[in-house]
């Protein structure tokens, strides 16, 4: 009876329409045909390593996958210069006008780090620079700029390179080529092959170069080799795009680590550059970086900057302010900057000490293998030569985690875990000399 009354009320409410009334009682039809052709995207290799590490309950576990700095207790750090900058900017991050000013100062100070404090091109106004979402965002902005103006030109990436380079230029729809870089037997630079590939690329190609602390190999060209590369680029009219994510981590000295860029600058190249403060300021989560393009003259720089601004505006609007304020405060205050310079050196030196300790421990154990490359390579990573099988055994039997290309993040090595790590590496490699000459793809 009650039900009949309810239906009656609804019938009247629906204006006497039978169709509308029955729709009320049936479940709404499910929308179909959306996203059906989407399959799961490949997992980022580093995420997989982190997940496996977190799931492991063994107290001796070591994470050598992470690409960010850790102190000698394996902990992430907040630099004192960052603490000082935090105190200085307390309460001012919502001042929009101030943020615009700070963004200009961030770019001004960043390009000084890359091209040199007194570089003439700064005074000439030939640099088109923009704050970017850390190093990744800087690469993406440049990739978009490349596609906008040179859609037919591929990007030449070193083989191997940071795996996300492939993703960034793929998503910007820029065709990709690679050039030879690493020599798996010497575990150093394959300079002759690199030179061949640079020579054989069509004139006027775009190349991505890691100016220091190459990820994942830890192998950088020498000063002389950089000079030769720069000369060749000049002859071929290639465009160098430097991705500098680890300035200071190779030598401990910010200027020394920018040497490749300075050489190209001296030789009169036009240059692109991505900079990140994720590692050398320990600001990974704040996503602060800079992208710059050295142009032919100031007029061109204004044009190029306006194009990059338009690209950024359509992709993410504008970057967050807090990290910007931190970095620009550190870089523009001489005292805080000199503290940062010292802290970069401390981080780089700790990594160098861990390289020495790991190599010495392996040698003391009587390893039949040559581990010189651990101390020859520089920066955050050691391209160990460990095979995917070794890496799997290290995880399974020793709770030591790294990417399957055998890349060791030296930041994960500490005074207290280095001998355990050496023992583990020795155990999985001592009968497998041959496998250590295999070439791997990178992550
Ligand atoms: C070579 C290289 N470029 C760029 C990046 C991106 O760094 P960010 O965290 O600043 O985006 C990384 C980070 O791993 C890198 O290794």
TrEMBL record:
Residues 60-425 form the Aminotransferase class I/classII large domain. GO terms for molecular function: L-aspartate:2-oxoglutarate aminotransferase activity; pyridoxal phosphate binding. Signal peptide: none annotated. The keyword Nucleus does not apply. It holds the Pfam family Aminotran_1_2. It comes from the Eukaryota. InterPro entries: Aminotransferase_I/II_large (IPR004839), Asp_trans (IPR000796), NHTrfase_class1_PyrdxlP-BS (IPR004838), PyrdxlP-dep_Trfase (IPR015424), PyrdxlP-dep_Trfase_major (IPR015421), PyrdxlP-dep_Trfase_small (IPR015422). It catalyses: L-aspartate + 2-oxoglutarate = oxaloacetate + L-glutamate. GO terms for biological process: amino acid metabolic process. One of its GO terms (cellular component) is mitochondrion. It is an enzyme of class 2 (transferase). Keywords: Aminotransferase, Pyridoxal phosphate, Transferase. PROSITE patterns: AA_TRANSFER_CLASS_1. Its EC number is 2.6.1.1. SUPFAM superfamilies: PLP-dependent transferases. In eukaryotes there are cytoplasmic, mitochondrial and chloroplastic isozymes. Belongs to the class-I pyridoxal-phosphate-dependent aminotransferase family. Homodimer. This is Aspartate aminotransferase.
């Amino acid at each position: 009876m009650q039900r009949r009354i309810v239906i009656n009320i609804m019938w009247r409410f629906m204006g006497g329409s039978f169709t509308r009334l029955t729709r009320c009682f049936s479940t709404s039809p499910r929308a179909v045909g959306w996203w059906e052709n989407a399959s799961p995207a490949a997992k980022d290799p580093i995420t997989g390593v982190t997940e496996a590490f977190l799931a492991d309950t063994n107290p001796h576990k070591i994470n050598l996958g992470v690409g960010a700095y850790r102190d000698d207790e394996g902990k992430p750090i907040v630099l004192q210069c960052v603490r000082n900058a935090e105190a200085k900017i307390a309460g001012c991050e919502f001042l929009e006008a101030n943020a615009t000013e700070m963004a200009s100062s961030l770019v001004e100070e960043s390009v000084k780090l890359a091209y040199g404090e007194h570089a003439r091109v700064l005074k000439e106004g030939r640099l088109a620079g923009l704050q970017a979402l850390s190093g990744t965002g800087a690469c993406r902005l440049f990739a978009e700029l490349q596609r906008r103006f040179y859609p037919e030109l591929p990007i030449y990436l070193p083989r191997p390179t940071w795996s996300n380079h492939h993703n960034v230029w793929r998503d910007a729809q820029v065709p990709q080529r690679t050039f030879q870089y690493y020599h798996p037997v010497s575990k150093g630079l394959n300079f002759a092959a690199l030179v061949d590939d640079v020579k054989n690329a069509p004139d006027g190609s775009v190349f991505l170069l890691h100016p220091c602390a190459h990820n994942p190999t830890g192998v950088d060209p020498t000063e002389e080799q950089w000079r030769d590369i720069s000369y060749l680029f000049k002859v071929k009219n290639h465009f160098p795009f430097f991705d500098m994510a680890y300035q200071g981590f190779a030598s401990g000295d910010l200027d020394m680590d920018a040497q490749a860029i300075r050489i190209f600058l001296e030789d009169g190249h036009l240059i692109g550059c991505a900079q990140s403060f994720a590692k050398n300021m320990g600001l990974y989560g704040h996503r602060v970086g800079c992208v710059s393009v050295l142009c032919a003259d100031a007029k061109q720089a204004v044009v190029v900057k306006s194009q990059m601004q338009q690209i950024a505006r359509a992709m993410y609007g504008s970057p967050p302010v807090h990290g910007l304020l931190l970095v620009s405060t550190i870089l523009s205050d001489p005292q805080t900057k000199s503290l940062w310079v010292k802290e970069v050196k401390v981080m780089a030196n700790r990594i160098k000490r861990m390289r020495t300790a790991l190599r010495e421990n392996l040698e003391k154990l009587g390893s039949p293998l040559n581990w010189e490359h651990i101390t020859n390579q520089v920066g955050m990573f050691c391209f160990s030569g460990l095979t995917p099988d070794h890496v799997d055994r290290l995880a399974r039997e020793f709770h030591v985690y790294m990417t399957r290309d055998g890349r060791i993040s030296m930041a994960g090595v500490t005074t207290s875990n280095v001998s355990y790590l050496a023992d583990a590496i020795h155990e999985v490699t001592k009968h497998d000399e041959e496998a250590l000459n295999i070439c791997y793809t990178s992550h």
